[in-house]
Automatic annotation (TrEMBL):
Residue span(s) of domain WYL: 117-183
Span of domain DNA-binding transcriptional repressor CapW C-terminal dimerisation: 204-270
Matching Pfam families: BrxR_CTD, WHD_BrxR, WYL
Residue ranges crossing the lipid bilayer per the database entry: none
InterPro entries: CapW-like, CapW_CTD, CBASS_pafABC_assoc_protein, WHD_CapW, WYL_dom
Residue ranges constituting the DNA-binding transcriptional repressor CapW winged helix-turn-helix domain according to the UniProt record: 9-87
Descriptive protein name: WYL domain-containing protein
Organism: Parazoarcus communis
């Protein structure tokens, strides 16, 4: 067999990642992603099957390739690259319009999740199926739960899974690295368990951040954050806002009573957090949250 070219290796790596983390691949996916002809896409599929004979199965009813039961990745993907691809869309160097197969938002230092667990979860997100997981919670310890994975989110320190928790009947966040095992279930998730029904995820907040009133030289903060007229305006999902405000150390108290030496920013419109579950994490703002 002739050794694959560098460009073909890139296509084979994409092929493997797509099958592994999304759970399906059609020849057209290669054609659309790389702008190649059907014959070239067929050659790539044949080359990958020669490289990893036991990794692909063809689902004749869905007319798509799926990961075989004994799937073993042959490319050495790093956690940073996999999560970056999931976050920005499959394909390095593509424009912002690239469609993402899995909802995934955020950017920060990356954890190192178990890829077999991550792949099970991302395939479940893509296919809309629930999974049975073994989860270790700080509040309740080890447990088995059935959840409906919906999206990945980076809170700045670690990755979370946004999911519907059937045991509690509500949407919640699960720390990705605390999921020790995940097994997909055959049924489809109900409409009330899907991302469109997650009010906290769908609600967008307009935050107004200003230099903390306790600072002697607020102009320094203006420069740090490229503020316009002394204000940094951001739009964040309600489900993620508390994590962001915690990471940035924003004083979210109505009277800006936190120490300005530790909190250089103040949320000028703290009322925007009313009814936001993640606001329990925001410095100076007290409310019960939904972190599992």
């Amino acid at each position: 067999m002739i050794a694959p070219s560098h460009s073909q290796l890139e296509r084979l790596a994409y092929l493997e990642m797509r099958v592994y983390f999304v759970g399906d691949l059609r020849r057209g996916d290669l054609e659309n992603r790389f702008g190649i002809k059907p014959a070239a896409a067929t050659r790539d599929l044949n080359a990958y099957r020669a490289l990893a004979p036991g990794n692909l199965e063809y689902d004749t009813s869905a007319k798509t390739y799926v990961p075989a039961g004994g799937f073993q990745p042959v490319f050495g993907f790093s956690a940073e690259r996999v999560l970056s691809w999931l976050r920005h869309g499959f394909g390095d160097g593509q424009g912002q319009g690239t469609q993402r197969a899995v909802p995934c938002e955020g950017a920060s230092e990356l954890v190192r999740p178990d890829f077999s667990v991550l792949a099970e979860l991302t395939r479940a997100i893509h296919s809309g199926r629930p999974v049975k997981v073994s989860y270790l919670s700080l509040s309740s310890g080890a447990s088995r739960r059935v959840i409906v994975p919906l999206a990945l989110a980076d809170n700045g320190l670690r990755w979370h899974l946004r999911a519907f928790d059937r045991s509690r009947g509500r949407f919640a966040d699960f720390v990705l690295t605390r999921i020790a095992k995940a097994t997909a279930l055959p049924e489809r998730a109900g409409s009330q368990e899907q991302l469109a029904a997650d009010v906290q995820w769908g609600r967008m907040l307009d935050l107004e951040l200003v230099p903390h009133p306790g600072l002697a030289h607020p102009e320094a903060i203006h420069g740090d954050y490229s503020m316009q007229h002394g204000v940094l305006k951001l739009t964040l999902r309600a489900a993620l806002a508390g994590y962001a405000l915690l990471r940035w150390g924003v004083d979210c108290s109505a009277t800006h009573c936190l120490d300005a030496a530790s909190h250089h920013l103040w949320l000028r419109n703290p009322g925007v957090l009313d009814g936001v579950e993640s606001a329990a994490l925001a410095p100076g703002y007290q409310q019960s949250g939904a972190l599992a």
